[in-house]
Amino acid sequence: MTQQEARGKEKKLLGQGKEIVGIITGNTAMEREGFRQEAEGAAQERLGKARRKVGELVGRDAKASKK
Asked: pLDDT tens digits for 1-59?
């Protein structure tokens, strides 16, 4: 797991927490902020995963071409 994936996962979890607290307390602003933060975290996590996968493919192809 890359740092970007980990930061995205952390942001996603924090957003879920804020969203839940917003729902429980009736604070719609906090609920919306949590939803937005959760979506940003999920996107960041997916981007980190995609970058890692591309890096793995490029590294594997580079090793294969040297043989």
From this structure: 889 999 999 999 999 999 999 999 999 999 999 999 999 999 999 999 999 999 989 88
Model's pTM, two decimal places?
Answer: 0.81
| C-alpha–C-alpha distance, residues 48 and 65, integer Å | 26
Query: Which one-letter amino acid corresponds to residue 64?
Result: A
Instruction: State the Cα–Cα distance between residues 33 and 27, nearest whole angstrom.
Output: 10
Torsion over CA: 67, 48, 43, 16 (sign)? positive
**What is the rounded radius of gyration, in angstroms, for the C-alpha atoms of the chain?**
17
Task: Give the domain ranges of the chain.
Answer: 3-66
Find the largest Cα–Cα distance for the chain.
62
CB 15 within 8 A of CB 40: yes
